[in-house]
Amino acid sequence: MPMTQPGAEAIAADHAASPASAKIDARAGAAKSESAAAGVVHSRLANGMEIVVIADRRAPVVTHMVWYRNGSADDPLGKSGIAHFLEHLMFKGTHAHPQGEFSNLVSELGGQENAFTSYDYTAYFQRIGKEHLGTLMEFEADRMTNLVLSDEIVGPEREVVLEERRMRTENDPSAQLDEAVQAALFPHHPYGTPIIGWGHEIETLGREDALHYYRRFYTPENAILIVAGDVDFETVRALAETSYGRIPARDDAPSRKRPREPEPRAHRLVTLADEKVEQPTHERVFLVPSYTTGAPGEAETLEVLGHVLGGGPSSVLYDSLVVEQKLAVNAGAYYMGSALDDTRFWVFATPAPGVSLQQLDDAIGAVIDKFAAAEIAEADLKRAKNRLVAEAVYAQDSQVSLARWYGESLATGLAVEDVAAWPDRIDAVSAADLAAAARKWLQKRRAVTGFLESEGQDEAKDAEAKDAVLAA
Amino acid sequence: MTAHAIAPARSRAETIQRVVTPGGIEAWLVESYAVPLVALEFAMRGGASQDPAGKAGLATLLAGLLDEGAGPYDARAFHLAIEDLAIRLGFGCDRDAISGHMQTLSRNSDEAFELLRVALCEPRLEQQAIDRVRGQIAAGLKRDANDPDALVARAFREAAFPDHPYGRPVRGDLESLANLTRDDLDALRIRLLTRSDLKIAVVGAIDAATLAAKLDAIFGALPAQSLLTPVPEIDIHALGERRIIDLDVPQSAIRFGRPGMQRHDPDYFGAVVVNHILGGGVFTARLFNEVREKRGLAYSVYSHLNEYDKCAMLVGGAATKNERARESLEVIQAQFADLANEGPSADELDKAKKYLTGSYALRFDTSTKIAGQLVNLQLDGFAPSYLDERNGRIDAVTLDDARRVAKRLLGDGELLVSIAGRPQGL
Question: Hey, what's the torsion of the CAs at A92, A95, A101, A102, to 10 degrees?
Fold first, then answer.
């Protein structure tokens, strides 16, 4: 048990994806299930709300989630952060159930709850004994339409969000660089704005902004109910009919019209130097298609490419930069495939002592070029695909992982069938596909490179650090 | 098919088979075929607190090297074998134990167990791998060098545990890391990676007889007895003191703590309830309501009980902009004092007990979580019956108990506090 525990358990009304955590979170999200589809039933209420029920009979508990198809990328211009701020305010109560009542009830019933906001969705969830599912659905349905906000409640919560931003970003130079890199990668599309919003705009967000956004997006047509656990579909549907089903349809499902990012033509280098930085780092982020925007097979190819290039210590980047050339202490890659619009492919590395970021940058470029020029061995391809497909089996061990995977997929425009077919589509990726994808998408002109640098640290100190680490 | 094997049917303890091998190795098994996976977790007592003087970080480095080449495999071959079989394998180290975590598709379990065996019994500890892992740990230390959370944790640890192994960094520091040699690693390996104080839990698609044979194969060749340096008991020092680390950031990170209670203390479950009311309940705790909900002073504010083998603590944290850091700390201290003096209300006690008993099942909803819980119970010296008794022990906490324990736990409210940032007025 670590003494430091500022993590998830202590945090309420969380937001899911600061760029750093997105890399980790979405790894779990990338875990796809080969046989989960067998126990998955999908339907829709008369008012348009989607329902997905995932059977997991191992313990008498359920995971209950409501996903809304709106996230930070739907924040109105000048109101960045409103999706996330509203997520916090959704815990402030309704006429029927004033502030605190819902949370107290969940707690008294032995449940756990939280919520998260990402670029493309906002979700609320509870984990609880299965006999309480109906009660939760009543409360969650109530706050879909009956939220009550006063200025007295909104004011302190805005301070909470500003503290959250200070904790995640203002106190951390690497998070500040991530924001600048994303802003450079998406000069036109709202993925360039952080999920939590820009500080100066959060400061101006008020009750009316939140309610306006709430009325626009929190509707049954825009919502997806996901229940995973020890329940059958008919039970869930009956409970949903008498809770969510009573909310009238709005007849105008909110549409998400976002500008498309133009073809990138110029490589961009973003640097942040700060005296608090003692360990420089390197990242390069490419603009690439997502599971939603890609041509058939394209996203699956990028998924395998991410794993082959940078998924752990047997990957191409790690092997070349860390083991062979010893230019880096760590290196990897990651494809953030779940996104409504064109998305990101990360390559990242931590330089070894005495290696400059420019040297490392050149070496990364060379590894990618070499990879793109030849096809990998069939055994290496098979190994990577087996690993990805196996992650689907591992996902069956966690009803929360399964629920998140389906929610994320549906909220970014995919269908239940897409999730079920994922292992087969991964299996269809060829060595030629990988090389072609690397040539097409991992071009430097499509990328933003980020350098996190020390400031005021002279060469002598660098050399000293190197001695200290390698002397033994 | 024992689909209900991990359900808390009437008795969770009854789902556990105690497997004792011919070689004398014990494991707790939950046999379940609902998912074609096997999870194995283990821990060996004696972690970073066994690092020799001047060699802080040695146990962490050792744990990091176990999957970097072993038996017939060099590091690359080992990683490829793990990847070929899609095994999840990792080793870790905290102050009191070295631990291992493995999960495999059941069809690959024979190969997975063999890889675990060579990792534990025949690690190569090659110089190249040592330098590589050392470099990764060093990079992590440098990344945290000016991180407010890392700084308050260090300041707290150093003030709380002077001249004690718990005061040293688990990962070491740049200086101590540079001193670690292959001989040091080998010596520590023989002392720590042994069959004594080995705690194992397995959950998944495997039966007791098969597992018993595998356990002897995996762990049987380890030395029978560990050679641990005794670690003295210690109470948190420097209560009532504040350690402020100047850091040019807009938000102050605050860490606070005072003595807690060990798990075998008769008042432990009272303390669990009191802590839940103080700062353990995510959306319901007093600290959450007073610091965050009413005043908007922090996004994260919490407390929890923390038991090292030789020191029990109640610790907590918050992060507040520099201008209001003092106010945050005052509100936190007022809550300590109020709960110590007045105790919780009957309503608070009732709700805390309902949550703590009702949510216990949520700790057992994946096989890796179950296995982790079962290893921890063994480390703490409990029998499987604990799983059935635990909720009753919480339910038995009366209002008088809770008031008495609140007084004992929170006492005069004196805290050791560490702060990183530019807090105003402190």
Answer: -70
Determine the 3-state secondary structure of A20 from DSSP: helix
Neighbouring C-alpha atoms within 13 Å toward the C-beta of B265? 20
- Residues A101-151 have pLDDT tens digits of 999 999 999 999 999 999 999 999 999 999 999 999 999 999 999 999 999
Together in a domain, A164 and A292? no
Q: How far is residue A62's CA from residue A57's CA, in Å, rounded to a whole number? A: 9
Contact A176, A279 (CB under 8 A): no
Residue A221's domain comprises: 10-246
Maximum Cα interatomic distance, chain A, rounded to a whole number of Å:
71
CA B361 – CA B359 distance, rounded (Å): 5
Contact (CB, 8 A) for A417 and A404:
no
Q: Is A145 helix (H, G, I), strand (E, B) or coil?
A: helix
Residue A261 lies in a domain: no
Asked if A237 and A274 sit in the same domain, the reply is no
All residues of chain B having their beta carbon less than 8 Å from the beta carbon of residue A9 are 282, 302
Q: Give domain status of residue A254, yes or no.
A: no
The side-by-side arrangement of strands in the sheet containing B301-308 is B242-246, B416-421, B251-259, B311-321, B301-308
User: What does the alpha-carbon distance between residue A27 and residue B187 come to, in Å, rounded to a whole number?
Assistant: 37
Average pLDDT value for residue range A391-419:
94
Count of beta carbons in the 10 Å neighbourhood of residue A312 = 12
**How far is it, in rounded angstroms, from Cα B399 to Cα B348?**
10
Q: Which whole-number Å values give the CA distances from A114 to A3, B269, B277, in the listed order?
A: 23, 26, 19
Other C-beta atoms closer than 10 Å to the C-beta of B194 total 20
CB atoms within 10 A of CB A321: 29
Q: Do B79 and A312 touch (CB under 8 A)?
A: yes
Q: Do A390 and B86 touch (CB under 8 A)?
A: yes
Q: Which among A57, A109, A156 is the nearest to B294, CB-wise?
A: A156
Least Cα separation, residue B340 to chain A (angstroms)? 22
A87 is catalytic: yes
pLDDT digits (tens, 9 = 90+) for B172-209: 999 999 999 999 999 999 999 999 999 999 999 999 99
Position of tokens 């959250």? A164
Q: Which of A212, A246, A280 is the last residue of a domain?
A: A246
Q: Which of A123, A161, A174, A162 is nearest to A20 (CA)?
A: A174
Residues of B in contact with A91 (CB under 8 A): 283
Cβ burial, residue B240 (10 Å; 0-12/13-18/19+): exposed
Number of domains in chain A: 2
Q: Are A178 and A19 in contact (CB under 8 A)?
A: yes
Are the CB atoms for B161 and B311 separated by under 8 Å? Answer: yes
Give the phi and the psi of residue B423 in degrees, each rounded to 5. Answer: -65, 135
